[in-house]
Specification:
8 helices, alpha+beta, five-stranded mixed β-sheet, 281 residues, globular
Length: 281
């Protein structure tokens, strides 16, 4: 017997009460398949946004059946356990993460999140490595070459960041400082392999130059428009911004060190560890 015919026959043999259950569960499935899909205001892509907070708001709605609310709450536990990066709908480029120091050995690293020298005070990366999507990495290399005649190089603090680390940062950051970290419900441009945190260093000495604030500073001095402090430090910041902008990067409004590559919307959110990223060609 054809598979579809067997399914139809099985449904016909259901007792009357079972039909109500089938319809009820089918309605729940339809409800959940649509209730948490929404359009990402930054990318324009449709993302699956399930959180316990969103679910709690739905559960407070005046549903006529207490049994319906009970089923919703039971399903919440299952969905919360399975939650992870936001599920996106849309067309994306195939990810092509490359290791920065392999593509351009003149790029230097200071991967703070592989050490305890960061705002969390503990390592979150197992390896001190940095990756970007190939197009972004090539643009970064061109920015470095722009700066070289002026006696400066680029030192990388962070590049591609697994989504799980973004979630860790969000959970660990006080609510009044969350403009400095990405909302995991939306994902980070770091998660897409199109954001880089970096600074300048002096090619003659190898030392990082002075900037208006340290890396990962949660104060007004971190703003790329901050007008106070040492004029030389502001000149370094502005030089970095100009070199990066010339190659298609935009500075993040709250952090002088954070730059987003222009094509970041074209790449999906990823959550793979550094060790799982294939070697660059």
């Amino acid at each position: 017997m054809h598979r579809h015919a067997r399914v139809r026959l099985g449904l016909m043999l259901l007792p009357p009460g079972a039909w109500l259950i089938v319809v009820y569960l089918g309605s729940l499935l339809l409800f959940f398949s649509n209730a948490f899909w929404q359009r990402d205001e930054f990318t324009g892509h449709i993302v699956y946004d399930f959180t316990l907070q969103n679910f709690a708001e739905l559960a407070e709605a005046p549903y006529p059946e207490i049994t319906f609310r009970t089923v919703l709450m039971a399903l919440a536990v299952t969905l919360a356990c399975a939650s992870g990066p936001p599920r996106e709908r849309g067309e994306f480029r195939l990810p092509d993460l490359v290791e920065l120091t392999t593509l351009d050995p003149a790029l230097t690293l200071d991967i703070r999140y592989a050490t305890a020298d960061n705002f969390l005070g503990r390592p979150v990366y197992a390896e001190a490595r940095a990756f970007l999507q190939r197009a972004a990495a090539e643009a970064l290399s061109r920015a470095r070459r722009r700066l070289e005649p002026q006696g400066f190089g680029l030192r990388i603090f962070d590049g591609y960041r697994p989504w799980s680390v973004t979630k860790l940062f969000w959970d660990a950051t006080p609510a009044d400082k969350r403009e400095f970290v990405a909302d995991p419900k939306q994902g980070s441009r770091h998660n897409r392999g199109c954001a880089v945190d970096l600074t300048l260093f002096d090619l003659a000495t190898g030392r990082e130059v002075e900037m208006p604030s340290p890396y990962d500073d949660f104060s007004e001095r971190a703003s790329p428009g901050y007008a106070g402090g040492n004029p030389e430090a502001r000149a370094h910041r502005d030089l970095l911004r100009a070199a990066m902008a010339a190659e298609g990067f935009t500075v993040y409004e709250h952090e002088w060190w954070h730059f987003d590559y222009r094509d970041w919307r074209s790449y999906p959110i990823q959550n793979i560890d550094f060790a799982a990223i294939r070697a660059a060609d």
